[in-house]
Amino acid sequence: MILGMDPGTPQCSRAGCREGASLSVVWRNPRIHTAERRKVWLACAEHAPYLHDFLASRGFPVAIRAGLTDGTDVDLPEAAA
Fold this sequence. Notes:
The chain is an alpha+beta fold and 81 residues long. Helices cover 11% and strands 19% of the residues. Strands 2-1-3 form a three-stranded antiparallel beta sheet, with helices on one face. It is globular, with a radius of gyration of 13 Å. The N and C termini lie far apart (43 Å). The mean pLDDT is 89.
């Protein structure tokens, strides 16, 4: 265990949240990432919309997927203009 966290249990990426993650927020920054690149934040059901909106408000293509994924199987929408 590192800093009181079990590395075998996925945890929500929202700051301060200790809930288990059941969703993947898949995104990329089009200014620095190629179209094939994917970043993934894990999320609990409560915080997935917050994380999605945080990224979308910056114009990043973002999608929420049930379960845990590395993002390679997710088609992202085009970035907002």
